[in-house]
Amino acid sequence: MFYDTQKLEVIKSLLSELGAQNIHVTKNSNNWVSLNFDFLIDVQQVCLALTFENRANWTTPPIFTVLTRPMPALDHISQSGQICTTDHQGENFEGNKHKELISLFFEKAIHILKQSFDNLQLNNRTSLYNELEGYLGNIQNIIGDVILHCDPLLTSQLFGWLKKSPKGNHQVLEQIDDDNNAYINRSQLTKVKIHKVLLDDAYIFPIPNIGDHFTEYDFLKIINSLSNENKQSLLKQGNHYVLLGIPNEHGFAYLVLSYSIWYSFKERVSFNDFKVSLTQRAWVDYLLNRTGQEQKARHIAIIGCGALGSKIAEILAQTGVNQFSLIDPEFLKTDNIYRHSLGLQYVNTYKSISLAKKLLAERPGLIISPFIDYGEQWIKSKIPKDVDTIILAVGHTPTEISIIKTIHELDITIQIITGWLEPYDLGGHFISFNNKNLGCLNCLYFDENLNKSLTPKYKFIESGQLIAKNITGCAGAFTPFSSLNCMKLASYISDYALNQQLGFVSLSGNHQNANKNGVITTPFYAVVNSSNGINILSIKEIYKEVCPCCNT
Amino acid sequence: MANPQKHYAKFHTNIRLGRYDEESTLREKRDLLISTLKDELKKDPNGPQFVEYFNQGSYALGTGIKPKNGDYDIDVGVLLDCDKEEYGSVEIKKIVRDALTHTNRTVTIKRPCVTVTYLKNGTPDYHVDLPIYTEDDKGNMYLARGKEFSSEDLKTWDISNPNELINTILGKFEDDSDLRLQFRRCTRYLKQWRNEKGLDFFKSIAITSAVYEHITGEDYDNDNKVLLSIVNKLLNEFIHFSIDSETSEPYFRLVINLPAHEGVDLIEKLTKKQMEYLKSKIEDLKSSLEAVNEEPDTLEACKILNTTFGTEFPIPEIHEVSEPVTQTYYTQEGKSA
User: Fold this and answer.
1) List of residues 6+ apart from A364 with CB closer than 8 A
2) Tell me, what's the pLDDT at B328?
């Protein structure tokens, strides 16, 4: 314990200097110290608590809490009375400057309290309604979150999906959608209709006092303000599931209420199992907004859903790109699961289909079409007209060049990115070009004298070395490629795909593993490695006029 | 034996209609004309309306070369929604002409199309040929033929399938992209040779069809060998007996059929004199290509080709050809994804 009586006296006198009265220590445990005190704000006496960590170097700033009860709900004060003195923008502070931190946060807390009291006086509750969900989240009888799969404002009919509780004696509402959502596995769930009530005026919603619950009587007050039709519907005998929207400056705060109505006497309403839940929004526009992104009307095809392709798909699926085609004719094998996005449970399933299923289950709002096809075949027969980018993650040069020649025949302009990894953690490369410009993957396969070459001009290992390993007999020969480099390369490729940048990029990884295995690296590897691990060439620099592929 | 393939590649770069500079200008002109036409036709909702456009000719085939006189061209078929019974073939072309007339271009009605010419310093810089089509209920397409002041019997709607030729030719190479690329290169070489030798009567469509007919996947990396093979086959085709209408002398003609249309000879209008001149020039070409094949020195081979195809065929510096190249056919590259 850092705080002894002597040190606590210092804090007390500091609080006293700041205007606190009746200061006394209420807690001095191993972890936390609390002191209660009174403070006069204008003419109102408020009882406050100061809580801080019981150690020399704080990682949490001091906390001030309003203890006076009853106390109406106040702006920037949580339902438990804690004054919100941080701005949710990340913080850093000198954790050992206790007195300075207490003084600073004391001032902040008092300033907030003053403003909150002023707003209460003026009946200006705008801020409070804006942060209503946060406030209600601390109320004890408001339980777990219901996942809201569609924007209630844009959805006319909502349905709830009930799941049996683990003991099987009652059902819990877990998800709400428009009955048209691919992310809910409906097989074990019961469907119910959701009554949507979007209030015209936030003030209809009675915000519970600090420390109080939200009860059925509060809800009845809301019902009383509604139309007769709504009243009758919400108070009918039976089970009810209501999505209540309370307007604010950003849209609506949403609560889900579930209850049963019984009429014990004429006109006497009796609520059973009254439960209130908050919601978690899971529709795509909202989710992307949380990442500062917008939905992009792009269609990206990924040919080759191996380690690299799967990681690119995973990254791009979280960037707002709304449509994907995933093309791969093969099954996932156990050998690859330590570098593939799909894990053990997907072994012996088609990579393209499983990857599409995984992404669809995890990221709402995406359109993903899987194809069990070879890339070239898919381009010739199935490529949709709106594909704007094709990412080739095949790792096999003859196949890639053949596909690229096919893409060059298309009338539409397409960005093509081909990426591949070097063995033994050495890194990887990718080239991003388009089928209506000079410069392509094939241009890399000419030497200085413009003679055709089977190895690319820019590579990390010297040709002619035996690099494959064999641990399970002849059929098990393989070349080791690292997952970390795969992820790194996937991130860069995704960035180039998103921003439609062009160029030839080489990323170097660590050479220790290569050295250990006696693999000789090229001077180009040394060049990239000494340039902070990245080398970027323009397409103009790699273009070869003798290339029969792009120069046709 | 020399294989000046990479010098052929440079030659190809020099002569091909730049897909990325000249062609992009042509594409822009095409897109502008199409959108103007669409908008103008919409102004009269009861009149003919734009349905779609499609590329035709060397642009669609990818066999274009830079023109001798700098007048770049593109052929764009335009399908309009109109009843051929209601509109005359020239009447519809006048509507298109009026819709496209603008100060920075001249629009003229030619027999098979409407031609839009862009001038630069008073001389034609680019032109876009727009053959105009309509369709009947059964999906048959008709080309509007005739000029403004043609006699009535030349103003016709001719049944036509504009995509058939392109589809037939490209269809042959559908599963062999290397052969398709070589077909384009060889067609371009022969067009350039035609220009160089002043054989203007040997039309592009005939050259394209001849290469289409005779090219086989012999060696994708030896254009000289493949070109020689095509030339040999052409020379072997001067077997069609004919009698000159002027002198009544017998002679043997070359026949080049329109692909998929046996009996439609694309060079039937060539006179005996032209035919013989063409044959002698093809024989010269054969000799040159054979000489290249037998020449051990690449530099010397390129000099022969420079004489054959003109100055666009590069004569390399000594250091560019001095290194012997060992071609490998398989390597373990060590890459993965």
Assistant:
1) A149, A181, A183, A282, A283, A284, A287
2) 67
Q: Is A431 on the interface with B (CB under 8 A)?
A: no
Closest alpha carbon within chain A to B65: A552
According to the model, what pLDDT value does residue B301 have? 94
Q: For position A404, what pLDDT does the model report?
A: 95
Q: Does B12 touch chain A (CB under 8 A)?
A: yes
- Non-local CB neighbours of A491 within 8 Å, separated by 6+ positions: A315
Give the span between the Cα atoms of A300 and B47, in whole angstroms.
40
pLDDT band at A266; cut points 50, 70, 90: low
Please list every residue in chain A whose beta carbon sits closer than 8 Å to the beta carbon of residue B28: none
Hey, which residues does B144 pair with through a beta bridge?
Answer: B157
In eight-state DSSP terms, residue B112 is S
Q: Which residue of B has its CA nearest to A310?
A: B337
Q: Which amino acid is at A141?
A: N
Q: What pLDDT, on the 0 to 100 scale, is given for residue A473? A: 58
* Angle subtended at Cα B197 by Cα B196 and Cα B201, rounded to the nearest 5 degrees: 110
For residue B22, give the H/E element and its range: helix B22-42
- The angle subtended at Cα B184 by Cα B181 and Cα B185, nearest 5°, is 90
* pLDDT on residue B50: 95
**Of A165-179, A347-361, A402-416, where does mean pLDDT reach its minimum?**
A165-179
Which helix (H) or strand (E) element contains residue A218? helix A216-224
Tokens 């606190």: give the residue: A20
> What is the least distance, in Å, from the CA of A320 to any CA of chain B?
24
Residue with tokens 């160089």: B196
Distance from CA of B181 to the nearest CA of A (A): 7
Q: How many residues does chain A have?
A: 552
Q: Is A452 on the interface with B (CB under 8 A)?
A: yes
Find the residue in A nearest to B62 (Cα): A552
Sign, CA torsion A262/A268/A270/A275: positive
C-alpha closest to that of B37 among B107, B135, B140, B90: B107
Contact A421 B13 (CB under 8 A): no
Instruction: Tell me how far apart the alpha carbons of residues B246 and B268 are, in angstroms, rounded to a whole number.
Output: 15
Task: Tell me how close the Cα of B230 comes to any Cα of chain A, in angstroms.
Answer: 20
**Secondary structure of residue A419 in the 3-state scheme:** strand
In angstroms, the CA A107 to CA A103 distance is: 6
Per DSSP, B87 falls in state S
Model confidence pLDDT, tens digit, residues A31-61:
999 999 999 998 889 999 999 999 999 999 9
Say what the pLDDT of residue B120 is. 81
CB A546 within 8 A of CB A446: yes
Residue A269 half-sphere exposure, CB side, CA atoms within 13 Å?
19
Helix H, strand E, coil C: the string for A171-199 is EEEEEEECCCCCCCCHHHCEEEEEEEEEC
Residues B132, B92: contact at Cβ < 8 Å?
Answer: yes
Give the residue carrying structure tokens 């000159």. B244
B13 to chain A: which residues are within 8 Å by CB? 545-546, 551
- Sort B284 into a burial class: Cβ within 10 Å, 0-12 / 13-18 / 19+: middle
Cβ distance B336 to A479 less than 8 Å, yes or no, reads yes
Which A residues 379-408 touch B at CB under 8 Å?
Answer: 380, 393-397, 402, 405-406
CB-nearest partner of B335 from A420, A452, A546: A420
- Whether chain A has a CB inside 8 Å of the CB on B241: the answer is no
The answer to whether the beta carbons of residues B307 and B290 sit under 8 Å apart is: no
Q: Buried b / exposed e across A429-442, counting CB within 10 Å, b at 16+?
A: bbbbbbbbbbbbbb
CA distance B292 to A513: 51
User: Can you read off the two tokens belonging to residue B133?
Assistant: 């089509």
What ipTM, to 2 d.p.? 0.72
The sign of the torsion formed by the CA atoms of A404, A406, A409, A414 equals: negative
B178 close contact with A: CB closer than 8 A: yes
